[in-house]
């Protein structure tokens, strides 16, 4: 923004020497941290309306729209908007709309890896942007573009804009006739001086606040980008491990050793990235510079892990060669459908019976697994039907064969998780009896040291003991509460115990604490893994940290049981947090509006939700090593292959063609050009 001094001087000069002037071409500009830059007065009093639309867009989609109004574009050979975007460091989720009001041109600059399709961007231009511009609704064009982007990002149609026609040349509205200038000149001069004196201090404070907001916005964008990349790598690792499992079953561990090493190396980098992300989420207050440095390091680690996996892609595809294996693989997969249907029915009955012994909270992590396994089995069945048809027609069946293989494995994982969880609950119920006895022993010992602090801890422990005796329908939660109360009691009794006694107490409690942590971590992990298409960075970060704390507890158990006990209890708390956040993400995904689908598209969307990634028709793009080829480039997650482009195989693909296109809308002409990491869509109105 201009300073008050500059505005005052400019206003005074306009009054004294103003005359109608020709529109001036603008070179690519520095946005100065602003989301809207209006050099021609196009918005008038509708600036707040535009900013509200930009806020809605970010809240609903994570996309950020920047808007610039100038007279004419100048000074950029490869696209004015792209040059401006690159000058200002705009990223993957940033869109720049530039409008030249005098030349009646616009450019829409997007990152090559923006999570939107060509068809979706076409709709935003044709339905939202260009109709508004043709009627000179300058503010409405920005609002309609923001609302259109928000809609397509959620899978919804672009809404028709509410158009308010405006002046065709906003850059000339403020030119004054000479006679008027002479009459009001002295008054404007005096007013400008008064305005300057009164507003100078306010302007300095406002500028400082604007700079602070701009820095916060850049920090938020960097953290959003890092979080998106981390989710993408986590999904890719999960998918790659699954693909590796298929390959080991077929070719053995010796032939797949290099791939296992690559996954371990990438996983180490992702684990470090999650640990850094936890620093951003914890209660420690980092400076903006520290947070930016952490986010940049997360991005660097994600890019490194991507490169490690990518280096093995060609060799892995050559090893699996699903195109050649499909005629044998498809019948083998088909033979698994009936046993899985029977297993789903058995698991549903088992969960119903478990509801008589355990409460709803204890079963929440696996409550919907049988139903979801049934839905995934429908995907496998549909995929195999398509694969058989393609084999009969002599066309490629690799894509649907892989989709069926993935779906069947996922159904198995959902059902296995139920059995594991119920066994863990049974073991927790047995451990609860030991924890109750341990706490009763501590209460007896505490009676010999009746200080005020001990008395308070005794009261808390007795209350927890009563709830534990009544809480056998939720044994994991009851045992955890009892462990926490017991730990408080141990803390106040430490002074009256010897070091050896304290170590013995911690060693005894550690067994129960580690088992409880394993149960909680496993429950969170299976929930996130089988619904990862709907789960964001927050729950995954908590889970990664819980796994790290649990590993520390298991490692320290023999040498420092007191420290190990604290790690195990922290792991349980983090796992609970991860599960709660993941369920909230799942619920938000389920409640969000989704485009109406049927048949294969519906099934593909379901698989994308369960496994992560995107779908095109029958296709499944879940990241990691897949049967298709990637087209290169970092996508940050959902579309394709390892990380970028389309995964090929059983995917209808997305158009990435460049060149010109002409609509049926009369004189409207639009083209798409690319340079660097961004691509600009241009049009006249």
UniProtKB/TrEMBL annotation:
<dbReference type="Pfam" id="PF04536">
    <property type="entry name" value="TPM_phosphatase"/>
</dbReference>
<feature type="signal peptide">
    <location>
        <begin position="1"/>
        <end position="25"/>
    </location>
</feature>
<feature type="region of interest" description="Disordered">
    <location>
        <begin position="630"/>
        <end position="685"/>
    </location>
</feature>
<protein>
    <submittedName>
        <fullName>Putative membrane protein YgcG</fullName>
    </submittedName>
</protein>
<feature type="compositionally biased region" description="Gly residues">
    <location>
        <begin position="630"/>
        <end position="651"/>
    </location>
</feature>
<keyword id="KW-0472">Membrane</keyword>
<feature type="transmembrane region" description="Helical">
    <location>
        <begin position="178"/>
        <end position="203"/>
    </location>
</feature>
<keyword id="KW-1133">Transmembrane helix</keyword>
<keyword id="KW-0732">Signal</keyword>
<feature type="domain" description="TPM">
    <location>
        <begin position="36"/>
        <end position="151"/>
    </location>
</feature>
<feature type="compositionally biased region" description="Low complexity">
    <location>
        <begin position="652"/>
        <end position="678"/>
    </location>
</feature>
<keyword id="KW-0812">Transmembrane</keyword>
<dbReference type="InterPro" id="IPR007621">
    <property type="entry name" value="TPM_dom"/>
</dbReference>
């Amino acid at each position: 923004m201009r300073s008050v001094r500059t505005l005052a001087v400019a206003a005074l000069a306009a009054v004294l020497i103003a005359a109608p002037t020709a529109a001036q071409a603008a070179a690519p500009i520095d946005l100065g941290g602003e989301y809207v830059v209006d050099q021609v007065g196009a918005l008038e009093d509708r600036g707040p309306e535009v900013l509200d639309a930009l806020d809605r867009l970010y809240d609903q989609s994570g996309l950020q729209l920047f808007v610039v109004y100038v007279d004419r574009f100048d000074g950029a050979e490869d696209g004015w908007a792209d040059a401006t975007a690159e000058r200002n460091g705009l990223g993957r989720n940033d869109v720049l709309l530039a409008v030249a009001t005098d030349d009646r041109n616009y450019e829409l600059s997007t990152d090559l890896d923006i999570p939107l399709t060509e068809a979706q961007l076409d709709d935003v231009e044709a339905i939202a942007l260009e109709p508004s511009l043709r009627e000179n609704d300058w503010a409405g064009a920005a609002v309609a573009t923001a609302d259109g982007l928000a809609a397509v990002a959620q899978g919804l149609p672009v809404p028709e804009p509410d158009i308010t026609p405006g002046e065709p040349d906003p850059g000339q509205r403020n030119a004054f006739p000479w006679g008027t200038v002479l009459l009001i000149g002295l008054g404007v001069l005096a007013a400008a001086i008064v305005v300057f004196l009164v507003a100078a201090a306010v302007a300095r404070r406002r500028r400082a606040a604007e700079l602070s907001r701009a820095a916060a916005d850049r920090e938020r964008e960097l953290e959003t980008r890092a979080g998106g990349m981390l989710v993408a790598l986590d999904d890719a690792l999960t998918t790659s491990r699954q693909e590796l499992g298929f390959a080991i079953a077929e070719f053995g561990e010796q032939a797949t050793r290099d791939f296992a090493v690559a996954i371990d190396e990438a996983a180490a980098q992702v684990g470090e990235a999650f640990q850094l992300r936890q620093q951003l989420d914890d209660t420690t207050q980092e400076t903006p510079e520290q947070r930016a440095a952490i986010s940049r390091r997360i991005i660097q680690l994600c890019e490194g892990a991507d490169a490690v996996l990518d280096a093995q892609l060609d060799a892995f595809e050559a090893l699996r060669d699903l195109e050649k294996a499909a005629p044998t693989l498809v019948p083998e997969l088909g033979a698994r459908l009936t046993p899985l249907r029977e297993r789903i029915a058995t698991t549903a009955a088992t969960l119903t019976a478990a509801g008589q012994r355990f409460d709803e909270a204890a079963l929440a992590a696996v409550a919907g697994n049988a139903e979801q396994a049934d839905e995934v089995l429908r995907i496998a069945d549909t995929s195999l039907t398509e694969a058989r048809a393609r084999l009969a027609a002599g066309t490629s069946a690799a894509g649907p064969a892989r989709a069926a293989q993935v779906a069947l494995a996922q159904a198995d994982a959902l059902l296995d998780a139920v059995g594991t969880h119920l066994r863990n609950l049974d073991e927790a119920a047995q451990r609860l009896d030991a924890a109750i006895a341990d706490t009763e022993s501590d209460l007896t010992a505490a009676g010999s040291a009746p200080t005020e602090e001990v008395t308070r801890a005794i009261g808390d422990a007795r209350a927890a003991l009563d709830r534990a005796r009544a809480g056998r329908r939720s044994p994991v939660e009851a045992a955890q509460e009892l462990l926490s109360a017991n730990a408080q009691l141990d803390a106040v009794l430490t002074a009256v115990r010897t070091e050896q006694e304290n170590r013995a107490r911690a060693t005894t409690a550690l067994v129960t604490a580690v088992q409880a942590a394993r149960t909680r971590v496993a429950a969170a992990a299976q929930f996130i893994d089988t619904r990862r298409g709907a789960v964001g960075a927050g729950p995954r970060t908590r889970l990664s940290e819980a796994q790290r704390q649990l590993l520390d507890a298991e490692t320290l158990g023999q040498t420092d049981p007191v420290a190990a006990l604290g790690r195990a209890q922290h792991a349980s708390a983090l796992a609970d947090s991860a599960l709660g956040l993941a369920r909230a993400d799942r619920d938000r995904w389920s409640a969000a509006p989704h485009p109406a689908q049927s048949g294969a598209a519906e099934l593909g969307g379901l698989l994308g939700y369960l496994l992560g990634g995107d779908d095109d028709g029958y296709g499944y793009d879940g990241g990691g090593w897949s049967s298709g080829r990637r087209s290169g480039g970092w996508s940050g997650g959902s579309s394709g292959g390892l990380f970028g482009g389309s995964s090929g195989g059983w995917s209808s693909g997305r158009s990435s063609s460049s060149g010109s296109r002409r609509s049926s809308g009369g004189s409207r002409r639009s083209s798409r050009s690319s340079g660097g990491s961004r691509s600009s869509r241009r049009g006249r109105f």
